[in-house]
Design a protein that fits this description.
The structure is a homodimer of 563-residue chains. The first copy, chain A, contains 14 helices and 31 strands. Chain A has 563 residues and is an alpha+beta fold.
Chain lengths: 563, 563
């Protein structure tokens, strides 16, 4: 490709709004352009990278025995109704009606479609296991899109679905896919951590995210130094050590408490430890339900854990007015005597303490010696606590906190879809039987952004060989026609030898600008031909990221590119 | 690929509803499955074919200098509003709103998006010409979907857009793309006719369809034997020879005419030639307008020509009640004295006759000696006549009628989008200037169906080498383990040699069934290994479509596949 012909070239300056490195450089170097928030155009350079990423994933998936197929983008809504997912993902799912009034979901994930497809064949135990996958555009009506390709409302996803007779057989595939994924990401230049995570709206019991550590990421996770444990913050469990649990329960007492509204104000006023205070957080869910989450004072509530326990899709904090309308008081909320309209959810940490203290639902009055299941009975009990760095896991190992980008995930789905969709297979004994499923996703666009977040310097991107849009950036300098003639010959020769090359053939552009563009675009090798280089014996070859260059003979150039 | 592992295998019987050959065989041989009407799943075999078709198109497009990009599937509706296309294609365009209330069109073609993208760069005359293209899923809310891949509501399209300084430069690209398209289709095994056609809703002045002659097609066109003329029926012009145009105009006369309602009834009753009668057809468009199309009695109205003249999107025939409510009478409609609510559109053939006869808007009363522009004045005049086989073109050559499948099209767009979207470039003199555009489409799914419509026999598909899912179908026969062991070795060897092979490794399936499946799937070469073949000296090699097979030595097998 000649740079003078390239559609979508570099730009010198970018808006300060492009805060993420990947967004800034992919824009500036001419790989992408925004259509509207969360929806992007791929320019020719970006398209080559995208195709290379797709090809690597495809190769590894095929090698694993998975088979590529394709489902329509528009999913008949009735399929999603069978699994009750039109409701549970209703804030993200986009829907459209056709001229005949048929309703469709714009596919955001394709479990229902794949089960629908499989149902079109009378499969038997003999046909299992199998794994089908696709690359297809997915739509999610995200509340907020981040800049660039990290969180899109429309994106390309590799989504695979495996079908098994039972859990034992599924686990083999689940383990195989872990290796396949590691290998895919490795080929893309990405080291990934496999982290236990929240199953979300997919349905099923467990799943793992493949996370690339990065400050640009939004996935927070906890792990042990030895690598034996890694879990997303939304599901990470930790040891809630017993505090004063052996104390005898004292009499519930109401006391005047002219104090401020914070937890610290309570500690100061009562001169009691933070952990002995009850933390009360009032939420409202998408259906308008009030939920009071209570937890030991030294811990925090994780909203995803809470959502999962109460089966809510979205949560917000209740307002002061709403709290007062419930007959309580901001800063003085208590599970003791709270309105029956409120669903009380207790973290199991409250069982590690006795004689807790906290509000009374009345201003400036506190309760002392509050004890769970004596003074109040929560509607639900469980783990809704946020794991934090420094906590210990259940094996007593110290937890470290990490942050990264989720580039892939693998899910156990179990019999969930087979059951909900009444999709069955014929077993050995001729009887109908449910099948066991797994699913496996990789976000292509996000993966590309992640590579850039990992491989860059102050001057631009540093593409890993495997997905660089071209292997070499050939630059001719000066105004001498002879130089350009020779550059053209080198360009042709590289192409003939199978070396992908971008040739900066612009005559009226200064050396500095050409070098800056080459650094920005970030191809692995830069080849310069100029009067100076020819005098020095040939061409200047420099690796992107290196400071030094070497002079090589023109005749040796092709040899430098291992194919 | 081993057949026993393949997802989506052949089926023995198919529903009689699958009338189209391509639909029937692609279903039966395990290439596709219907999701809902007009939306299909691709199974692994179909997916391989699709990828090969895409690759060939991509190679030829890249070779031509076009550059691959990608636009989002969801187009901001405001872009379509700029070109007034939300209205003119409103019956086909699907729309969706996101949670923030932003409206989007599900892309059916992408002129607006490409202009939007180009506008993000300050392009100058120096950057022209360029051609950008994409493969992307398109949505059209077709009133009716045909079975299989011939007419879909959701499909993959290669759509390219070229940008030029002026018409002269555009024409070079237009001619180049004609060659590129011919070459693409040739590589896919399809001979195409380039046929002038209706520009439809794209905007612009002229365009051509690439048509593969086929009974399964819906494109009707007229052409001359020498190939100098080929035009879609919707735009084909023909010579409307003068009839009695030199007669003097007689006095308009009302006569009693107790006759039936057909044209033939008029001829019989008045004993006058059919061509002298006025044919009146009353239509209603999507806005509820009444349109009276009138034409010489021996000709028929072409609705597309009519729609283009009156700028309507859809037409239907008026009902008898509607005609009566207008104060006219079915079978006796006349432009003379018709309600002013009615838009009268006259075909220019009415100028080739004098003293015409026809209805009077009153039952059983006809008019004689009706003359255009004396007794009635049409609101619009032009060519709304259907060209038919046997007519002559304007050069006097006889027209032949053809029928086929439109697999591609190329459009002149001119300054249309540049003007409507106020998208400009900087010219040499520093002034802003509109740019000249063309666009170029190929429907991938329809192309695949067309190949099957051309290459099949009673037993199944006969894939052309270039896009066959595999090159060879290896079949092991019998129950002898040794045979299967040797087959496995051959299978491995073919793969290692780069020969794509499907291996029917089923042990409990009879020879007849294996042969039938091989014929149905239609791979270019069938290789049989059996006790019989080994006794005869090796393997049976048969080309799909041939009746005879030959015996080749096992060691010679790989040589038989030219790579």
């Amino acid at each position: 490709m000649k740079y003078s012909k390239l559609f979508g070239r570099t730009v010198k300056t970018v808006s300060k709004d492009l805060k993420l490195i990947s967004n800034k450089y992919l824009y500036q170097a001419g790989f992408i352009r925004e259509s509207v928030a969360g929806r992007y155009y791929y320019l020719p350079l970006g398209m080559i990278v995208r195709d290379k990423v797709v090809k690597i994933i495809e190769e590894e998936m095929d090698k694993s025995g998975a088979q590529k197929i394709l489902a329509p983008v528009l999913h008949p809504l009735e399929l999603w109704e069978k699994t009750n997912r039109t409701e549970s993902v209703s804030f993200e799912l986009m829907k459209v009606k056709d001229r005949n009034g048929s309703e469709f979901a714009l596919g955001g994930t394709a479990e229902e479609m794949m089960v629908d497809l499989v149902q079109k064949f009378n499969i038997s135990y003999n046909d299992l296991p199998f794994h089908i996958y696709q690359f297809s555009t997915k739509f999610r009506d995200e509340l907020r899109a981040r800049g660039g390709l990290l969180r899109l409302r429309e994106f390309l996803m590799k989504d695979g679905y495996s079908f098994h007779a039972d859990e034992k057989d599924f686990k083999k595939e689940y383990e195989k896919m872990q290796k396949v994924y590691r290998n895919i990401f490795k080929r893309l230049g990405l080291e990934t951590l496999m982290v236990e995570s929240d199953n979300g709206y997919i349905g099923g019991e467990y799943c793992h995210e493949f996370i690339v550590e990065s400050e640009a990421g939004e996935s927070r996770f906890l792990y042990t130094k030895d690598g034996s444990y890694a879990a997303h913050e939304d599901i990470a469990k930790f040891l809630k050590e017993k505090k004063n649990v052996d104390e005898k329960e004292n009499k519930l007492t109401e006391v005047k408490a002219p104090r401020g509204n914070t937890m610290e104000d309570g500690v100061k006023f009562h001169k009691l430890p933070l952990w002995q205070q009850i933390k009360d957080v009032m939420f409202v869910d998408e259906k308008g339900r009030f939920i009071l989450a209570i937890i030991r004072g030294d811990l925090n509530v994780n909203e995803t854990k809470l959502k999962n326990i109460i089966k809510a899709v979205e949560l917000r904090h209740a307002t002061d007015e709403e709290i007062r309308e419930l007959g309580s008081e901001p800063g003085f909320i208590s599970p003791v005597g709270i309105s029956k309209k409120v669903l009380v959810v207790a973290d199991d940490s409250l069982k590690t303490i006795k004689n807790a203290y906290g509000g009374s639902n009345k201003k400036n009055i506190d309760l002392l010696n509050v004890n769970i299941n004596r003074d109040y009975k929560p509607n639900l009990e469980g783990d809704i606590a946020l794991a934090e760095e420094g906590f210990k896991n259940e094996q007593g190992q110290k937890l470290l906190a990490g942050k990264g980008i989720e580039v892939g995930n693998i899910f156990q789905l179990g019999y969930h879809y087979s059951e909900k969709m009444k999709a069955l297979l014929t077993d050995k004994d001729g009887k109908e039987k449910m099948y066991y499923m797994g699913c496996y996703g990789i976000g292509i666009d996000r993966t590309i952004a992640t590579v850039v977040e990992k491989y860059y310097d102050d001057n631009g991107i540093i593409w890993p060989e495997a997905i660089a849009p071209f292997k070499a950036h050939l630059i001719a300098l000066g105004k001498d026609e002879k130089i350009y003639k020779q550059a053209e010959e080198i360009y042709e020769k590289l192409i003939k030898s199978g070396v992908e090359v971008l040739y900066d053939d612009r005559v009226n552009v200064m050396a500095g600008e050409k070098f800056a563009d080459a650094d920005l675009i970030g191809l692995p090798a830069r080849i310069v031909i100029s009067e100076k280089s020819l005098k020095a014996g040939g061409l200047e070859l420099k690796k992107r990221g290196d400071k030094k260059n070497e002079i090589i003979k023109v005749s040796d150039l092709v040899k430098c590119f291992k194919l």
